[in-house]
């Protein structure tokens, strides 16, 4: 979500020409904090402290048990003191890294990436201090505390953020807001407002176009549980008064100057604040961009976001190491699944299908066969477990995502990567426009943001926001964060 909205400042004159628009950066809807607002960062900091402290203590204890030599005995007091010092250091680094913003990221992956980055800084600082001070610390205890503590903090933060949003945020003062628009930008803004309660935005609903047939819009989330209705009626003063609207957010880049002037006049008459949300499409002609601020000016860069050779090299090394290790460790599972597939249905063990990879290069994707041999190879993928094309073994494979394991071979070959946009079939990519074609500028992956969202039930190219967000923000630590989220939510049966 782009929170750098452009507020309209009416001058109160009666000229027919639009009044000037002053552009300013907004980090929220209010400047004054109430006591209830202070409870949110307090809860988050306290939760982070407890999560990291407990995780470090548990990890340090486990690590010390695996220490080969016990030339230095780690006392309980030393473990507790060291864990507290390390926890305070991490919290200070989190604060300096702006890890407690009023705005939350898409699916909280940025928050997890920040935790990973800060934890690496903290352990490096701790090691340097111990070496300089010549303080003996069991290496396994430090390693165990770092790994378990980081995992506790990364996973726990997501749960805490959701708990804050569901429970504490409802008591915060919020302004009833109407979102003008019902497309991608409107949905992103709606999601950001829900996930960022400190902004004080209470979305009431959407103003849709006459051609809009949907009745509601769901947020970008792990589950489709938050939605708001689409009002199929013209914007009017009576409507704003009836709904007790205080703020209007225009999230429609296709609105004309005349239409924008009309909306502003209605907002003035209803005494509502009007803001224009920049969706990074307005200046970029529907191409992915990086928008940044310079001395009060917004600059949109339409050049592709190149993550750099270092990122590509590290990502490839991680792909090779992880895929080779996972193939080796899961070899017994491969054998059992192969026997089960052949025992139920005669035919090949693997399902092979042509997909389009980076730069439009086709390749053959591998999966464990979950459907009958005579099922059409390029038909629409089954959405229901009761689909007659799916075998009994196939139902288990699809439910557990075990049918995707052979794609580790694609990763090892360099045709795919662990984290990236999902590859699609050629007849779909042939219909891509400039907006969708951005997916093909990076290696296609096994998992990504789309797979973690509730929109995974829809076609990949219909939920392109997740892939574009990843392309513009990808780093090695974000890849690790997505893998961590994938493991957690796969374990929960998503």
TrEMBL record:
Annotated stretches, region: Disordered = 1-20
Under the heading Pfam families, the entry gives: Bac_transf
List membrane-spanning regions: 49-66, 78-94, 115-135, 141-160, 317-341
GO terms, molecular function: phosphotransferase activity, for other substituted phosphate groups
Per the record, its GO cellular-component terms are: membrane
Q: Start and end of every Bacterial sugar transferase domain?
A: 315-488
Q: Does the keyword Metal-binding apply?
A: no
PANTHER family (UniProt xref)? COLANIC BIOSYNTHESIS UDP-GLUCOSE LIPID CARRIER TRANSFERASE, UNDECAPRENYL-PHOSPHATE N-ACETYLGALACTOSAMINYL 1-PHOSPHATE TRANSFERASE-RELATED
Q: What is this protein called?
A: Exopolysaccharide biosynthesis polyprenyl glycosylphosphotransferase
User: Could you tell me which species this protein originates from?
Assistant: Telmatobacter sp. DSM 110680
